[in-house]
């Protein structure tokens, strides 16, 4: 009877979806076990739980027939009802948004498309007329290829394989011609290269756009250029010179990383942190120190310090809480299985919101091609 009474009074934090027993709990132990089992299944379907020595519920389980009593067959109406995209932060070069209600396979496909299948313009061919710097020709060409070029790839076509000469619809041309000389006005006792030499550092600002065909009429002056003008390409000393011509073409990151439009594109599951019992006094302060700043907030309630979960989104899940023997049993760490936090950082070629919309178009195109192939097989 004592055990029964203890279980009646056992309570879990109300902000969670966990089942808890109270004075109105069913009298039948069988009913209790059924409800606890249902809660365990629901947790397995919706949460990835982080333990002290491992992670539970990692694999996707939402497919038909996996759990008795649950209809997990894909339904378009239910998907449209649950799916949403929330923009959290956006500036000139970065975007953070939440994508809720999708499977991990779709989220990962979207990330891979951002990395490898959204096209950009990049240096593909370098014609070296003179290079007396200490940087070898092939290393110099490689460095030039990694410079992001500010040009909308949607305005260009892919260059056909085997084409030696580009045209205005598929190629951008840049010239780099820099010669280092001594500064005749430098102080005699100076040892600073910035004073002693002229053009001893070659930057992207030295790259000059050479229009092809009617490009000068189509693109206003200054619109076609490297994204940043202060990227260091090479260093020279008096008498050394770099003179070359670059051809930029349209490509995708799947062919070469220099065409990737993002510096990073990643996602993580939304953290879900639950306090299983009240944490007060000095323990509240200890608890807040175990998480990233802003995750746990300590409030004054009736003269007592009480800990509460303020913003679990900020946590990085260092699992520092498991080093505290007193507090590790009062916290449950989990992640929401279908809530993805995406971070997209553009290289500056296109705004991040445009990159996301282009990635969606690529994904839609893949789906259309797959459906067309299915239709073709059925007709055969």
From TrEMBL:
<dbReference type="GO" id="GO:0005666">
    <property type="term" value="C:RNA polymerase III complex"/>
</dbReference>
<dbReference type="GO" id="GO:0005736">
    <property type="term" value="C:RNA polymerase I complex"/>
</dbReference>
<dbReference type="GO" id="GO:0001650">
    <property type="term" value="C:fibrillar center"/>
</dbReference>
<feature type="domain" description="DNA-directed RNA polymerase RpoA/D/Rpb3-type">
    <location>
        <begin position="94"/>
        <end position="373"/>
    </location>
</feature>
<dbReference type="InterPro" id="IPR036603">
    <property type="entry name" value="RBP11-like"/>
</dbReference>
<dbReference type="InterPro" id="IPR011262">
    <property type="entry name" value="DNA-dir_RNA_pol_insert"/>
</dbReference>
<dbReference type="Pfam" id="PF01193">
    <property type="entry name" value="RNA_pol_L"/>
</dbReference>
<keyword id="KW-0804">Transcription</keyword>
<dbReference type="GO" id="GO:0003677">
    <property type="term" value="F:DNA binding"/>
</dbReference>
<dbReference type="Pfam" id="PF01000">
    <property type="entry name" value="RNA_pol_A_bac"/>
</dbReference>
<dbReference type="GO" id="GO:0046983">
    <property type="term" value="F:protein dimerization activity"/>
</dbReference>
<dbReference type="InterPro" id="IPR036643">
    <property type="entry name" value="RNApol_insert_sf"/>
</dbReference>
<protein>
    <recommendedName>
        <fullName>DNA-directed RNA polymerases I and III subunit RPAC1</fullName>
    </recommendedName>
</protein>
<comment type="function">
    <text>DNA-dependent RNA polymerase catalyzes the transcription of DNA into RNA using the four ribonucleoside triphosphates as substrates. Common component of RNA polymerases I and III which synthesize ribosomal RNA precursors and short non-coding RNAs including 5S rRNA, snRNAs, tRNAs and miRNAs, respectively. POLR1C/RPAC1 is part of the polymerase core and may function as a clamp element that moves to open and close the cleft.</text>
</comment>
<keyword id="KW-0963">Cytoplasm</keyword>
<dbReference type="GO" id="GO:0006351">
    <property type="term" value="P:DNA-templated transcription"/>
</dbReference>
<keyword id="KW-0240">DNA-directed RNA polymerase</keyword>
<dbReference type="GO" id="GO:0003899">
    <property type="term" value="F:DNA-directed RNA polymerase activity"/>
</dbReference>
<dbReference type="InterPro" id="IPR033901">
    <property type="entry name" value="RNAPI/III_AC40"/>
</dbReference>
<dbReference type="InterPro" id="IPR050518">
    <property type="entry name" value="Rpo3/RPB3_RNA_Pol_subunit"/>
</dbReference>
<comment type="similarity">
    <text>Belongs to the archaeal Rpo3/eukaryotic RPB3 RNA polymerase subunit family.</text>
</comment>
<keyword id="KW-0007">Acetylation</keyword>
<dbReference type="InterPro" id="IPR022842">
    <property type="entry name" value="RNAP_Rpo3/Rpb3/RPAC1"/>
</dbReference>
<dbReference type="InterPro" id="IPR001514">
    <property type="entry name" value="DNA-dir_RNA_pol_30-40kDasu_CS"/>
</dbReference>
<dbReference type="GO" id="GO:0005654">
    <property type="term" value="C:nucleoplasm"/>
</dbReference>
<dbReference type="GO" id="GO:0005829">
    <property type="term" value="C:cytosol"/>
</dbReference>
<keyword id="KW-0539">Nucleus</keyword>
<dbReference type="InterPro" id="IPR011263">
    <property type="entry name" value="DNA-dir_RNA_pol_RpoA/D/Rpb3"/>
</dbReference>
């Amino acid at each position: 009877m004592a055990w029964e009474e203890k279980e009646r009074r056992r309570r879990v934090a109300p902000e969670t979806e966990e089942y808890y027993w109270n004075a109105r709990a069913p009298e039948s132990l069988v009913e209790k076990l059924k409800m606890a089992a249902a809660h365990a299944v629901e947790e397995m379907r919706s949460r990835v739980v982080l333990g002290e020595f491992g992670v539970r519920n990692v694999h996707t389980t939402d497919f038909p027939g996996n759990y008795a009593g649950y209809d997990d067959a894909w339904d378009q109406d239910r998907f449209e009802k649950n799916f949403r995209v929330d923009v959290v932060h956006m500036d000139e070069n970065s975007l953070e948004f939440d994508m809720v209600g999708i499977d991990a396979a779709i989220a990962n496909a979207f990330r891979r498309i951002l990395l490898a299948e959204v096209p950009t313009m990049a240096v593909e061919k370098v014609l070296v007329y003179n290079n007396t710097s200490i940087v070898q020709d092939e290393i110099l060409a490689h460095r030039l290829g990694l410079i992001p070029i500010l040009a909308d790839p949607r305005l260009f076509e892919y260059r056909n394989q085997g084409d030696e000469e580009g045209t205005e619809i598929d190629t951008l041309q840049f010239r780099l011609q820099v010669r280092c000389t001594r500064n005749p006005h430098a102080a005699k006792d100076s040892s600073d290269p910035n004073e002693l030499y002229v053009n001893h550092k070659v930057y992207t600002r030295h790259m000059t756009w050479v229009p092809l065909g009617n490009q000068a009429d189509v693109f206003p002056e200054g619109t076609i250029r490297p994204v940043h003008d202060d990227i260091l390409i090479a260093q020279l000393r008096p008498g050394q010179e770099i003179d070359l011509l670059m051809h930029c073409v349209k490509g995708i990151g799947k062919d070469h990383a220099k065409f990737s439009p993002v510096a990073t594109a990643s996602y993580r599951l939304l953290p879900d942190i639950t306090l299983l019992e009240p944490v007060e006094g000095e323990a509240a302060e200890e608890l807040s120190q175990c998480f990233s700043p802003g995750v746990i907030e300590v409030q004054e309630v009736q003269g007592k310090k009480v800990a509460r979960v303020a913003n679990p989104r900020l946590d990085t899940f260092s699992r520092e809480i498991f080093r505290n023997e007193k507090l590790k049993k009062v916290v449950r760490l989990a992640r929401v299985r279908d809530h993805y936090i995406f971070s997209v950082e553009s290289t500056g070629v296109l705004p991040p919101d445009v990159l996301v919309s282009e990635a969606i178009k690529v994904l839609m195109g893949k789906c259309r091609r797959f459906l067309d192939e299915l239709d073709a097989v059925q007709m055969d």
